[in-house]
């Protein structure tokens, strides 16, 4: 007797295995899409902050007393906003022969939101010529 095909049981088992594999893949796809979107958002806001801090670093290298809060953040729009920019003195010292303390280290902070999710960045900048 010649066996030319599969039995109905073999076909049903193969379909059941295929269905389990497909159900597992379909269950994972939404979380992969969510992770991809979150990663893209994090990359976008991080690149905007990095670009802003490079502009701040350049401005403060020329003039340490420059106001970094007036520098615009590149890439705003499409759900990205960076409304919070602050500058805080971190370290002061009083030069010899002076009574006025001099700020030599500042922290520039940037607060952004992208699609309702908050992000916070900071950069410490020291005065080059003391």
Automatic annotation (TrEMBL):
Major subcellular location class: membrane
Membrane topology listed for this record: Single-pass membrane protein
Q: Which UniProt keywords apply?
A: Cell inner membrane, Cell membrane, Cell outer membrane, Membrane, Methylation, Periplasm, Transmembrane, Transmembrane helix
Please name the InterPro entries in this protein's record. Answer: N_methyl_site, Pilin-like, T2SS_protein-GspI
The record's section on Pfam families has:
N_methyl
Subcellular localization, per the record?
Answer: Cell inner membrane; Cell outer membrane; Periplasm
Q: Which PANTHER family match?
A: TYPE II SECRETION SYSTEM PROTEIN I-RELATED
Similarity annotation: Belongs to the GSP I family.
Q: What is this protein called?
A: Type II secretion system protein J
Which organism is this protein's natural source? Deinococcus hohokamensis
